[in-house]
Amino acid sequence: MPDVAVAQPPARRAPRRAQTRSAFGLLLPTLIVLGLVIGYPLALAVNLSLFSDPIAGVPRFVGPDNYTRALWGADAGRFWSAAATTGGFTLVVVTLELTVGMALALFMQQLKRGRAFARVCVLVPWAVPTAVATVLWQWMFSTDGVINALTGQEILWTGAEGPARTAVVVIDVWKTAPFVALLLLAGLQLIPGEVYEAAKVDGAGAWRRFTRITLPMLAPAVTVAVLFRVLDALRMYDVPAILTNGANGTTTLSLLTQQLAIGQVRVGYGSALSTLTFLLIFLVALAFIKATGARIVDKEGT
Length: 302
Prior knowledge:
CATH superfamily of the domain at 87-250: MetI-like
Structural class: mainly alpha
Strand content: under 5%
Low-confidence stretches: 1-6, 294-302
CATH topology of the domain at 87-250: MetI-like fold
Mean pLDDT: 85
CATH architecture of the domain at 87-250: Orthogonal Bundle
Order of helices and strands: HHHHHHHHHHHH
CATH class of the domain at 87-250: Mainly Alpha
Shape: globular
Number of strands: 0
Largest sheet: none
Helix content: over 70%
């Protein structure tokens, strides 16, 4: 007999609809707050980006002119340079933070005593406000600072492109690698110890256990850590703004937007840059989620 689609009984659909309404009711306050905090500023920025800068007189509607100027017009060089700098910083800092964070997480996982104290010590850099941490590192990177004293050099760290970018990377990695370490440590603690014991009995060495057990079972935590850090690094502003003010190849998209919108009162063009930065971050997040197979809803779509 041919297969006949059987309709879901109304008795089963009713609880499902009730759960949906209940879930929506619980999410509604959060959605309202997100709409006020994110939706309204974004809509305002998009609206401002369609008008000329007030410094040139009364703002007038110019449509997509601000976007074309940034992407392939007169100011395209500055935009794409800032985009390349932002992408370079993101790639380097996320890679280093994942490596350092993994090492710290494995170290804390192996501790038999003092694990809580080690977590507190690791958490301190992340708990320090970014502005405060950057100022402290700025003193350390000065010509007569601690870094030059330890290395025996007299490098002007903010005076050239290479040292300036290195300083930005060092500060960001020092600040946020502990966050990655704690996320990975939480994932490590979910791996059953019996799995490692069975692997040892089978003769698997430390490296084989790490590559065949730890990394595959830690993949969800790594995915979350990388996603969070990529999105955060793409909007990097504090460290280069305080350390170099964007000099010597350290101007990121967020810093360029602030310099133009506030420093030069180019509100319309700056709003276009902020909108483009938002779109870039959104597209990167969407591509990352698609590539890693992450899902917002479960397989049944509930």
